[in-house]
Design goal:
about 425 residues; alpha+beta; Cytochrome p450; six-stranded mixed beta sheet; three-stranded antiparallel beta sheet; 15 helices; globular
Length: about 425
């Protein structure tokens, strides 16, 4: 059964007046194309205006200080996800699809599906992923070293996760690019009914039935992993009467997004930062054990999901400002992770920085279930590069793709110079 519903435009309450609560008001549209292509300026401006700001263009709050965002994300009782993690309020308007049973649900329902997903992501299951992921990373790097140039996004950041993670889940090899189209739909639907969202949802009729069919149990194929593929592990919870068959299909689809989209974004950002900061690449190249620290710095500096929403479940306060039940709060992860009060010289890419503690994958009960897989994929690829590549050369300025929630590169022509 298809999960899609014809998209309902998100109302845009243009220039809604600020509640008289002592908070600054800002009339910026954070979903305009100019802002989405220059997120750092938006991050800086948001933090400069204070710990909580009223966005009059959309009639919602925005927060960008590290400690404030972490507080809101960690407190699901006051700031829930069940009314949607985007601008739309599911209690007041129809969502574009039935809500996610993992991301857009709160306890106690959340506990049941989260338990299934966490059992799927055991250290044993992930250990089985490591060897094939490293082999594929090494093979891809060798192929790219034979080429004069390659596109950082299409040929590496997208190609690698589209190969290794669907393999691990048990998805067959046909038309995997549709997973990227579906991911763009999901993440762009988090924003308003702007051009970015409309362009993504225009693909729904072709993509949603395809991915629904691919995530069915009888469509999954056997994998080379010890035991079962990750998709089959989820479906085993159906056999144990923990979830229904339909719920298992939705969780498999959530797993695919968790293991692909954020990884594509982070690998592209890593290539951009290392090509622009060759001295930082020298550190990792000369000592590949630094890869894991470098991964955390990439995630901190370029949070793959730049913003998610929460909805106030009760009348409460944020940083001394009254927030009413039903108010939407835009939690700007990218601003929090570049907050100079938390990270000295926060705008600088520094692979020696102790970046652990960032919230690029969120925090609290809704922390990204696929973060361990994303880190494993990044580790495999960056280690393969560090062991074989002297320099990563940018042949053009790598440019960002406007996205309502996901920050990923659009393209960037590069060259790999092999170690001698």
């Amino acid at each position: 059964m298809s999960e899609i519903i014809p998209p309902i435009p998100v109302p845009v309450p243009s220039l809604v007046p600020s509640p008289v609560r002592g908070a600054p008001t800002w009339d910026i549209d954070p979903y305009s194309r100019d802002v989405l292509l220059n997120l750092e300026a938006w991050y800086d401006g948001l933090r400069e205006r204070g710990p909580i700001v009223w966005l009059s263009h959309y009639g919602c709050w925005a927060i960008g200080h590290f400690e404030v965002v972490r507080e809101v994300f960690a407190d699901w009782q006051r700031f829930g996800s069940a009314r949607g993690v985007g601008l739309a309020d599911f209690a007041r308007e129809q969502p574009w699809r039935p809500p996610s049973i993992l991301l857009e649900v709160d306890p106690p329902d959340h506990d049941r599906t989260r338990k299934v997903m966490m059992r799927t992501m055991t250290p044993r299951a992930l250990a089985g992923l490591e060897a094939p992921m490293r082999r594929e990373a090494e093979a891809l790097v060798e192929r790219l070293l034979q080429r004069d140039t390659f596109d950082a996004v299409k040929d590496l950041a997208e190609a690698y996760p589209l190969k290794v993670f669907p393999d691990a889940v048990g998805l067959n090899a046909d038309d995997r690019e549709k997973l990227l189209i579906y991911g763009a739909m999901v993440f762009n639907a988090i924003g308003p009914d702007n051009e970015v969202r409309r362009e993504s949802l225009a693909n729904a009729a072709a993509v949603v039935p395809w991915i629904t069919a691919k995530c069915a149990r009888d469509a999954l194929i056997e994998t080379d992993l010890p035991g079962s593929g990750l998709g089959e592990l989820i479906y085993q919870a159906v056999d144990d009467d923990e979830i229904t068959e339909a719920e298992a299909g939705l969780l498999v689809r959530s797993l695919l997004s968790a293991g692909i989209d954020t990884t594509v974004a982070s690998l592209g950002a890593a290539l951009k930062y290392f090509s622009e900061n060759p001295s930082e690449w020298d550190i990792v190249r000369d000592d590949p054990t630094q890869v894991r620290k470098a991964i955390e710095e990439v995630l901190r500096l370029s949070s793959p999901v730049h913003a998610f929403f929460r909805t106030a479940s009760v009348d409460t306060e944020i940083s001394g400002i009254t927030v009413s039940e039903g108010d939407k709060i835009m939690c700007v992860l990218g601003a929090a992770n570049t907050d100079p009060e938390k990270w000295p010289d926060a705008a600088r890419f520094d692979v020696t920085r102790k970046a652990a503690g960032h919230i690029a994958f969120g925090t609290g009960i809704h922390v990204c279930v696929g973060m361990a897989v994303a880190r494993l994929e990044m580790d495999a690829m960056l280690t393969a590069l560090a062991e074989r590549v002297e320099r990563i050369e940018a042949l053009e300025v790598a440019t960002w793709r406007p996205g309502n929630s996901l920050r990923t590169l659009d393209h960037g022509r590069m060259r790999l110079i092999a170690k001698k």
